[in-house]
Amino acid sequence: MSGSQAQARFITFEGIDGAGKSSQIAAVVALLEGRGLCIEQTREPGGTALGERLRELLLHEPMHLETEAMLMFAARREHLAARILPALAAGRWVVSDRFSDATYAYQVGGRGLDPAKFAALEAWVHPGFQPDLTLVFDLPPEVAAARLAKGGAEPDRFEREQRDFFERVRAAYLERARMAPGRIRIIDAGGTAESIRAEVEAIVEECCLR
Ligand SMILES: Nc1ncnc2c1ncn2[C@@H]1O[C@H](COP(=O)(O)OP(=O)(O)OP(=O)(O)O)[C@@H](O)[C@H]1O
Ligand SMILES: Cc1cn([C@H]2C[C@H](O)[C@@H](COP(=O)(O)O)O2)c(=O)[nH]c1=O
């Protein structure tokens, strides 16, 4: 399929902290650009000037669980209005490091937010709109934590959470994938970077480029 013929898609990457998704995003962007497609690479929370300021608060300031959930969706509302929807409308593909599945996994699964409140926020901020493809990088929390520790960066408020928190986040991602099997694909993130890259590229090829 040539670049000019492909309908612009919205692809998201998800998983617990340290699962390895960031390492694979560059490969997917390179794959798509290699097909002549115009790509907008972004992330959540963040992706806009306001969203990046909200990210600083979200990653570093203690706050009530519902404040956290609403700020995630406030940043997302801005992200949709200022970047995601205009890019898709102009024919540019959007590749985002996280979207609303992260709120389901972290705030509902990890922290215990009422799922009805999550559903209300999701229906308000992006009614009827979801990514075309979501790749969830699945890994045991102890393996992900070891990878992050090896990286040596100062952990943020989420990365400092304990293993049981990440077990719940992981379980919520798997539950969410069961609810949307056509959209969400689970990647076993325990392999080598090379084997994961091959699997990711095959899925993107199958779901978005054929
Ligand atoms: N397949 C892999 N095997 C071993 N180490 C890996 C693999 N993939 C990534 N890593 C390493 O694990 C660390 C975390 O990877 P990465 O930053 O891609 O994860 P992430 O899921 O984006 O995490 P975060 O959500 O916290 O940003 C990095 O040091 C990276 O080099
Ligand atoms: C979008 C979103 C993110 N989070 C958490 C998940 C991560 O711990 C951080 C973002 O850091 P990353 O290195 O860019 O992955 O934010 C969340 O709890 N809820 C969300 O909706």
From TrEMBL:
CDD domains: TMPK. ATP binds at G15, I16, D17, G18, A19, G20, K21, S22. It comes from the Bacteria. SUPFAM superfamilies: P-loop containing nucleoside triphosphate hydrolases. Gene3D superfamilies: P-loop containing nucleotide triphosphate hydrolases. Its EC number is 2.7.4.9. Residues 13-199 form the Thymidylate kinase-like domain. Keywords: ATP-binding, Kinase, Nucleotide biosynthesis, Nucleotide-binding, Transferase. It catalyses: dTMP + ATP = dTDP + ADP. The keyword Kinase applies. Pfam families: Thymidylate_kin. One of its GO terms (molecular function) is dTMP kinase activity. Phosphorylation of dTMP to form dTDP in both de novo and salvage pathways of dTTP synthesis. PANTHER family: THYMIDYLATE KINASE (PTHR10344), UMP-CMP KINASE 2, MITOCHONDRIAL (PTHR10344:SF4). Belongs to the thymidylate kinase family. This is Thymidylate kinase. It comes from Aromatoleum bremense.
